[in-house]
Automatic annotation (TrEMBL), chains A, B:
PANTHER family noted in UniProt: TRANSCRIPTIONAL REGULATOR, MARR, TRANSCRIPTIONAL REPRESSOR OF EMRAB OPERON
The keyword Electron transport is annotated on this UniProt entry: no
Organism: Anoxybacillus ayderensis
Domain of life: Bacteria
Keywords, sorted A to Z: DNA-binding, Transcription, Transcription regulation
Protein name in UniProt: Putative HTH-type transcriptional regulator yusO
GO molecular function: DNA binding; DNA-binding transcription factor activity
Gene3D superfamilies: Winged helix-like DNA-binding domain superfamily/Winged helix DNA-binding domain
Domain called HTH marR-type: residue spans: 1-139
PROSITE patterns in the cross-refs: HTH_MARR_2
One Pfam family matching this protein: MarR
Keyword NAD annotated: no
Length: 148, 148
DNA sequence: ATTAAATAGTTAAATAATTGAACTATTTAG
DNA sequence: CTAAATAGTTCAATTATTTAACTATTTAAT
């Protein structure tokens, strides 16, 4: 393997790990009762309107039983609710409760301010370029996941 | 908050979550018995030669007791060992066993190949720029974590 | 020099995330 | 119309994590 590539990989492994851990730790401060993963479940349902366990399991790249456990906790907390599908009765539609929607909208404000405080230390172009590359990586990973 | 910034934040939250989850899922395939977090503990000790619980807790941004639990498992697996410090007897130096060192060196090969397969779908300059920005973010997060 | 405060690490109890296998209920296809 | 596929749950086990209480050791203040 080429030496310069190897160094890039080494740097990537170290820095991605660091940023994820520290980023999650900072975000946790804004999320009172809700965990980091639960926050992303709520976000996804909010953006979709309704969604299914299977869809969440695909997005999160985990087993469906992990989603069952997480959604159980969110139902207990009164943040989401389950509704049977009309046409296909195997499907259970997950949606935010009023409480869940309100909580998310308020919390998004705080999270946005946190991320903004970090991002604005970089130039607009640098952020834009960074996110574009990140999105390319997301697509590459998606393809690799599907092909397996 | 400015609208374009808000969109960047939204994109960042979505994509960073996706890449982390899917990246971790892909990496797990290479790590047989060892978990994702344990792999990074081993990596950190390998790079440092020896290190302490407190140092790991700082790097991972978790409590020291979380580190105790993780290192216990790694000791059970025969990957690392604990050694009392000579000068300060409170300190316990963590180091890789021969087995741990060999396992890590072999596994790094596979992980590197995995990351390389992803990276080489982007241009060298794009990766370099991406990692540089990532490293800036890491520094910003570090400062924010310290000031709190 | 002795005591009080700080530091390094562990233990224990609780919660959360995750996997894998076995299971129920429903739908689709041969 | 039965067999296979799909959607979701349950259960048992493992891992990661937090918080509070604890032990052992070192540093600092009087």
């Amino acid at each position: 393997m080429e030496r310069s590539i190897q160094q890039l990989i080494e740097r990537y492994l170290s820095v991605s790990f660091l940023v994820n851990k520290r980023g999650a730790a900072l975000m946790k401060c804004e999320l009172d009762d809700v965990t980091h993963d639960q926050y992303y479940v709520l976000r996804h349902i909010y953006k979709r309107g309704v969604c299914t366990s299977t869809e969440l399991a695909d997005v999160f790249a985990v087993n469906k039983s992990a989603i069952t456990a997480m959604t159980n906790r969110l139902v207990e907390k009164g943040m989401i609710e389950r509704g049977r599908g009309e046409d296909d009765r195997r499907i259970i539609a997950l949606s935010l409760t009023e409480k869940g929607r309100k909580w998310l909208e308020e919390t998004e404000q705080n999270v946005y301010e946190l991320v903004e405080a970090i991002m604005t230390k970089l130039s607009h172009e640098e952020i834009e370029q960074f996110i574009q590359t990140y999105e390319k990586l997301a697509m590459i990973l998606q393809e690799m996941g599907e092909s397996k």
